[in-house]
Amino acid sequence: MEPIRHVLIAVSLLFMVVVVGTVGFWYLEAQQELSLFEALYLTVATVTTVGYGDIVPETLAGRIFTVGLIISGVGVALYVLVEIMESVLEGRLSEAFGLVRQKRSVAKMKKHLIICGGGRTGQVIVEEFRKEGLKFVVVECEAEVVKELRRQEVPVVEGNATRGEVLREAGVERASGLVSTLPSDCSNLLLAITARDLNKSLDIVARASSEEAAKRLCSVGVKKVVLLEEIGGRRLAKSLTKPAVVDFLESATKTGETSLECLKVEHGAKLAGKRVGELRLKERGGGGRATILAIIRGEKIILNVGAENEIREGDTLVVIGSRASLEEFEELE
Q1: What CATH number is associated with residue 47?
Q2: Among the listed residues 166, 131, 172, 174, the one whose alpha carbon sits nearest the alpha carbon of residue 146
């Protein structure tokens, strides 16, 4: 917004000079009975230094006024030209207007996701959300990171994610979820408190570096806390002792021909109240069938799902299958 502000200030100054010059000539050269248009004509001729033709200042006061107008008006006119040329040559105007368009786009978002922190972890989340085709915006305070994200055409709000006004700019009151990847536990805790205060129904997921920090985050309403070091350590261990399992999970959770999805059974869904056998999953999905691996019901996880298992409202279904079969399955929700 800074380039636009500079140009607007410059244009406003030039407009003010023209107005003052027009009114000044019209008043001081009253003996010539100048019209406002003639006074404007005389002002423009003075500011642009093109010289005078048929209309010239005749009174002493008018000529003194002209000297001041030449000094101030020419300076302001040059300032305007320099600002506009500099903005155009450096591409600052196009960048600024791009930011305006991006802000308008973020302002229209609803039920979107917010990623707080655009570092290495945030970049991975951006890639995953893009693959899923989700609407999201990143909140980041580091200028270089913001510049890189904008180069990748990622919606960004620049600022401190722990501040309420920055979260409001990211549309936190209209968002459905927020991921906090800030580097310190204190920052993540403050962010969670601020976000929860602005949106009581927001699903918040945060990173933590210790069990104690995780407990504090959960106590302020964070839905899920991830200990990155612990998960990384387990992943390394499993990659060595059970590589086939790791490869399977990694392949299944990627967005591709075959993928693992979690589907929430909302109120009024077609699935609610039916048994798994009634869905006739084996007959669905021309590109390959979908299979229910588990049913998550509150704190309970039902494995070895069979035809007699009932699906209820509020359940979360863990389903694996081809993209075509999963899309058909989602239509039953």
Answers
A1: 1.10.287.70
A2: 166
